[in-house]
Amino acid sequence: MKRLLLLIGLLFVFLSATAFESNNVPKHKHPEYEKAIKSLEMTTKRVSKPSASSTVGISGPPGPEGKQGPIGPQGIPGEKGPQGEQGHQGYEGSPGKDGAPGTPGAKGDKGDPGDQGPPGNDGAPGTPGAKGDQGEQGIQGPPGSGGLGYALRLVTASQSTTTDSQTVYWGGMAVAPSTTAARWRVYIPKAGTIKTAYLFSYAGTAGTNENWSTYIRLNNTSDTLIQTLAANTNARVWSNTNLNISVVAGDYIEIKEVFPAWATNPATVTRNGVIYIE
Fold this sequence. Notes:
Blueprint: H1 2-23, H2 31-48, E1 150-161, E2 167-170, E3 186-187, E4 192-205, E5 211-218, E6 222-230, E7 235-240, E8 245-247, E9 252-258, E10 267-277
Antiparallel strand pairs: 1-10, 2-9, 3-9, 4-7, 4-8, 4-10, 5-6, 5-9
Helix pairs in contact: 1-2
């Protein structure tokens, strides 16, 4: 009976050692380990070989479970398995904080001009300018007489030079005076009486103060003196408010001038005038 129990124990040890050797023991075993295995094998052979006179008894109950042996070293990692399916997308997280402003980019090309906008509102009125100098006083018109009369305007262009003792004519045309009469006529539109005449001239060069006479010449036949003026000023005014020259519609008049022999002749002379008729 004792031999049977010994045989079972040795067999258990042998099987445990064999399993441990095949799974965990490296190929290069320790010498003491190999020696123990050989001794166990010899003992097992002697015990398991029954003698001719021995009889096999009834098997005893199983012995207690031995303690778990030490955990062997980790095996070589296996090959990487196939990638699993992608999992469901998670819920969107809350927005993160704004990052720091990036570096400004390079300035872009200038765009095309836009459409012109509507005109803006008018600005505030500017400050009034300084008051200009008062001009020279014009020729005084003839006295009124109940509004029955009318006036004729006379004008001529500038005369650059004057000639001593010359007679010239001018009237209603903006041209220089002529030495030929009846060329620059001013026609009478309504019958009446010439009552007043005013003539004004301005000379760039005043000239000396010899007598300078002006006349109203009617129909190139009769002359009526307006005034003889002796002055050496740039501006000269001939006037007569006591005229009494009867006219009818269709008559015409001109201004006649008789120049003196000047010591210094006036130059660049311009003229205008007005004739009042009642």
